[in-house]
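User: Can you model how zinc ion sits in this protein?
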Amino acid sequence: MIGRVVKIFSDFYYVQTELGLVESKLRSVLKKGKQDIYTGDFVELIQFDEKSMQAFILKTVNRVNLISKPKAANVTQVIIVSALKEPDLNFEQLDRYIAHCEYNKITPVLCFNKEDIQDNDILKQKITDIYSPLGYKIIFTSALKKTGLEELKPVLFDNTSILCGASGVGKSSLINAILNNCKLKTKAVSDKNKKGTHTTRHCELLKTDTNSYIVDTPGFSHLKFDFLLPYEVQKLFVEFSKYELNCKFKDCLHTGETGCSAVEIIENMAESRYQSYKKLLIEAKEYEKRISKESIKEEHNVKYNNNKIMTKISNKKRNLSRKTANQRLYKEEE
Ligand SMILES: Nc1nc2c(ncn2[C@@H]2O[C@H](COP(=O)(O)OP(=O)(O)OP(=O)(O)O)[C@@H](O)[C@H]2O)c(=O)[nH]1
Ligand SMILES: [Mg+2]
Ligand SMILES: [Zn+2]
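Assistant: Here's the modeled complex, given as structure tokens:
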């Protein structure tokens, strides 16, 4: 029997099947092979007991992708949820989420919640001015007053969407507002610092319509890009890819060097976006410095193969594979 993992609690995997929700455990073979299974995975179940609705998971089937943070499988869309207020909108953090989506090759939808809190017209205009020209879909909502939901619902159709954003922005509240019979736990932001209180603890997949799913996730804000090389950061900012770049300098980072063909792009870039770009570059440069330092010791490392001398590239000098980078991000979160 095939089903989809909707929730994971320590050793228990809750799998939605055609016969209902099945409480499952991993088969020991899976545990030994250290094959990880995540919310959103399709899995094959064995030893299914209809009476107790319990089974074992044999393996995952057809995993299309795996998002590293928040961890979920087979996601087709990321909805970055921010609050206009309480907690205050943080543009750098938003750009980090966007860059993270670009890194995972998923175009995000930007949802700005709590639009019922007053005096946000200027902020809304600023958001539209910055992010609309970049091609990102923008939706303003209020989970409290149920506004903007008519715009959000069609976006969810035929997708597995994951909500991501800081704690307290209203991710669970939005899902409760969309799904009438859903009562996910929500909690007020703290009075003192207006920050969320990490109410949602696990990823949970919920069905919103035929073939449409949404994943509620725990809020997070720490997202560092210290696993990329500086030239890779640029690829996460669509401003650079949207306009043809023919910079004459080799290895140019396009941060405003005279003669760089990106000067015009930078001049037209929103100030906050440029600041975020520079922040990410700093992290990438730290990473570059670290790996070049660490690899010096290993440069003498030479391998012989059929009498040919081959210089072995230090592991540390190589770019991290996408998988390793994702694992690193995940570890950081834990
Ligand atoms: N004024 C207003 N308050 C909202 C809105 N949406 C959510 N809230 C409130 O914001 C607080 C946090 O909402 P949650 O839904 O728990 O936030 P979350 O993003 O799921 O937070 P975590 O689970 O901690 O990541 C709650 O007190 C909600 O009632 C909104 O549209 N307007
Ligand atoms: Mg929540
Ligand atoms: Zn350049």
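A couple of observations from the model: The radius of gyration is 23 Å. The chain has three domains: 2-63, 67-216, 230-333.
User: Helpful, thanks.
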